[in-house]
Fold this protein.
Amino acid sequence: MNYSDETISALAAEYVIGTLRGSARDRFDALKAKNPKMQEEVWYWEGQLNQMAIDMPATEPRPELWQKISQQLNLSNNVVNLQQPKAEAKPSSSVWQWVSSVAVAASIVMAVLLINSMPKQESLITSVAVFSNEQAEILWSVDISEKELTIKPTQKLPLLSNNDYQLWIVPKSGGDPISISLLPQRGQLILEQGLALDLSEIAALAVSLEPLGGSPTGQPTEVLFATEIVLLSS
Amino acid sequence: MEHEYLFPLLLKVAKSDTQAFENLYKATKGQMYAVVLKMLKSQELAEEATQEAFVKIWYNASSYREGQGTVLTWMISIARYRALDTIRYKKVRKEEVLDSDYVDSNQSMFEQDSINQNKLDVCMLELENPQRQAIHLAFFDGLSHAEVVQCLDTPLGTIKSWIRRGLQSLKRCLAL
């Protein structure tokens, strides 16, 4: 059946405001899945009419709601969920060039030095990494235990007021770097990683320079540092 | 503009960035929840619909295209459709008494925001009063044609005509 533009627009508008109901709504759902013009008309009305909802006064849900969402998605605050990446991995040459640079070698040496001075912690640290600058000054130390990953900046870290540092995992597969978190410039950050983080799949960690709030593209904007993770002997 | 803040976040959510998802949630939860609470009139059902909407956003972040409106209007679409599903399958307002409070609350909410009018606001104000009221009741409160009939005490044919013609006028005005 052919629908006139006027009919398509009327159906799409009533679909969006919600007065198209029941089996008529189901039929329209099926039709728009096969008809790009109908789908576009729905998007048009969504973009227009939902502006009315933006003007509504906000109402805060109970704090438990976030817990329910993060539980359903198997997330929690700062959890790294690497085993089920949603996006297709693509090669990213710039980070790989960094990973293979001398900065990595320098970091490994510094990591070994750092191990001796680490205090004992309740959760056994199994691996470590450090990020250092070209002068071999340590900027962040990373402690990885079976339960969590702790990142601490040092006094040598240049403080940024108009940018953020962001931490990434560079997968061994050669795929795109995976964002872990923005990095603190002061104070430590603890990421609960659980068993999701498989160290054998990680080629390196990298830190990028980003606009405030983090990478706008989902990929590192400017890679500053990269380092390998060093496995401690048991 | 909220879109300039939310769009980069959504791009990161599409890459499974949990921190970006939490930030997106924090930035939009009040609006998302307000929309579905007004439709469902139940804290429990509204939280459930909001939860389902955010779960869907997590899994579908990469499907957003800028041609679909702003990030927030796209997210609100997802939340509203969840709420409409709830109304349909849980029959949430079956025994609820509808009264003129619906009309009054929508009207005052709309007028309060007239300082920051965009083109949609201007075009909505150009509609005839009954058309605007009927569209508001359907949109904000998730009312069906039959429920708008009950609310405005007007025959079904008239309500359908108000909504249909109101939306046609709105599109003409928005295209100018």
